[in-house]
Amino acid sequence: MPSYRSELLNVLDQRHYTHQITDAERLDLLASEQIVPGYVGFDPTASSLHVGSLVQIMLLRRLQQTGHKPIVVMGGGTGKIGDPSGRDESRQLMTEEVIAANIASIRKVFERILTFGDGPTDAVMVNNDEWLSGLGYLDLLRDVGPHFTVNRMLTFDSVKMRLDREQPLTFLEFNYMILQAYDFRELAQRYGCRLQMGGSDQWGNIVNGIELTRRTGGGELFGFTTPLLTTADGKKMGKTASGAVWLNEDMLPAYDFWQFWRNTDDRDVGRFLRLFTDIPLDEIERLERLEGAEINDAKVALANAVTALVRGEDAAAAAEATARETFAGGAGGDLPTLSVGDGMALPAALSALGFTASNKEAKRKIAEGAVRLDDEVLSDPAMVLNVAEGEQRRLSLGRKKHAILLR
């Protein structure tokens, strides 16, 4: 691996974040000589980000850990349009009230992972609606429009994918890349921002911002992207059969969040320890050399570290304790619960818990012998679950999904 003079690029390289850098030598020199303000943009399309955004959040943490200034840009303005990158169809437009509520909710996670304040390396969170909503359409066309050609814009993957599949790409979305480029120039002027970071699908948008700033008399800016993050089996990071793995507690219980990391594929453990935890590299190297049943120790270390970072130390400790009790045959106080009232059909209970996506899938799992009630395998899809007043029963699907049934 290349050796850089700056701690920033060394850390990013050693922890396997590096995919592309616009000018590694110049950025390395800058980062070794002064504080570099850098930003990542996030679209507030829901009240929580999911783990697919965690690599980018960790980029900002690494930036701060190595003595630089993180700028969290919430796309309150661009969120009114929607980023076409990685999407097959248009997003539904959100109201300003929904966007504001989403940003306030998302901020909670950032406050755990970054240090905010007024110091030179303290993080700041800004909303691009501050400058985008005040733009006059004609002013934007005259100022920015001449620096973009439709020919080039049509070559971007985010546009080509939709056109190749003959799926609609609205003129509104087509403007997203122009506004993101404008963001970079505006952040450079307002906050002295010199670096934009993002996933590999953002490379074109980042380069657009660098070129727009150069062509309109601004200073030298830099771009950094991470590789597309997929799991060892080729799936997109952050998605599971039961839905997204949300970062906010009110969207996903801490135990389920912890369990997601505990269930990491053996082949991904070392990579995820580097990307998502602060565990020292020499300890990670030891953990990823574990084999057989011992690899589970590395997975527990991963689950504890990420859960502590995102949800807090207490949440991590409680989740691990629940897992120990569950696999030892106990109830586990942090497991999801479901009230079955005077009785609930077994397939309906499995679907209500999110263990299965439909009653049809639930019946298939029952037929496979994957469903247990208090460790007794259930085989009747017509079974009605009942719980006596004041009692609890444990419903399990496979070895990894467990819930407590109440009356």
From TrEMBL:
It catalyses: tRNA(Tyr) + L-tyrosine + ATP = L-tyrosyl-tRNA(Tyr) + AMP + diphosphate + H(+). A motif ('KMSKS' region) lies at residues 236-240. A motif ('HIGH' region) lies at residues 44-53. Keywords: Aminoacyl-tRNA synthetase, ATP-binding, Cytoplasm, Ligase, Nucleotide-binding, Protein biosynthesis, RNA-binding. It is found in: Cytoplasm. Its EC number is 6.1.1.1. InterPro entries: aa-tRNA-synth_Ic, Rossmann-like_a/b/a_fold, S4_RNA-bd_sf, Tyr-tRNA-ligase, Tyr-tRNA-ligase_bac-type, Tyr-tRNA-ligase_bac_1. The keyword Ligase applies. The keyword ATP-binding applies. Pfam families: tRNA-synt_1b. L-tyrosine binds at residues 39, 176, 180. ATP binds at residue 239. GO terms for molecular function: tyrosine-tRNA ligase activity. Transmembrane segments: none annotated. Belongs to the class-I aminoacyl-tRNA synthetase family. TyrS type 1 subfamily. Catalyzes the attachment of tyrosine to tRNA(Tyr) in a two-step reaction: tyrosine is first activated by ATP to form Tyr-AMP and then transferred to the acceptor end of tRNA(Tyr). Homodimer. This is Tyrosine--tRNA ligase. It comes from Alteriqipengyuania abyssalis.
